[in-house]
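To fix ideas, we now present one chain and its tokenised fold:
***
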Amino acid sequence: MNRKPHVAVVGATGAVGVEMIKTLEKRNFPVGELTLLASARSVGKKLTFRGKEIAIKELTKDSFKGIDIALFSAGGSISKEFAPMAAAAGCVVIDNSSAFRMDDAVPLVVPEINPEDVKRHKGIIANPNCTTAITLMALYPLHRAFTVKRIFASSYQAVSGTGAKALEELERQVGEVVAGKPVTKEVYPHQIAFNVLPHVDSFLESGYTKEEMKMENEGRKIMHHPAFRASVTCVRVPVYRAHSVAVSAEFEQPVTVAAARAVLSKAAGLDVVDAPEKKEYPLPLYVAEKDNCQVGRLRMDCAMENGLCFWVAGDQLLKGAALNAVQIAEELLK
């Protein structure tokens, strides 16, 4: 790998693409050259990187000649079509969509958890689902110490997880409600302002959604724990950015709050914010735009043996997407 790699961002104008560019700059990633790729309608738009304006180019099958690392965040169908072409051109793809996550030949990586899996790549590395990544930042250190058997969880997912148009929809609807106007819907099937929707991604025959099953399926792969079980309800909430998850976890070994706190306080990429007597606990509003996830509300689960409850929050555009992708790129250079 080139020490000063030529990096491409695919889907550069989207909510995550913009964060990828910011994150490369903020972390001083040794970018030799940056190419920004998007659909034809974005061509000519300019985005700033290290004080220089870079014009967007159209994504085509010939876009990857000479590119070392491509960060993809343009949706699953684009990834399925273009990631194999990029890999064939000698580029390493770090893909933010769900297209390759469960492919046995593709590593699925959270660098704080399974960085060694990066080495197994055959040209494509997958970024996990945002809710899964944020949950595992707190769950995996506990798993290493006490061995997790299963979790029951509910997510509180920000609209930024759906993309830039969803951010606009929430803002527009709040204005409409406050002004007493009829509420207009484009992105979500129901009003999201002043409401919560127990519906993230499409429904499966089981009655779970795809998003809800990602926690179990991706969690097993990332933690190398094939027996892990997760029953999840994913809920979209009227929050701009940063997802939160309420987790009840059952472990094989006995766990105490003090032992859990000791483990979590040493975990990379995680801050313990847990002083309920001072009204301190992780809040999506305060974790937004922060690299680290936060965990709090630690308590013994009163309905399970060896159970622990916790609340974890993280910026889903950062640890849930752009930051995790850039950290994978950093692993590639090691």
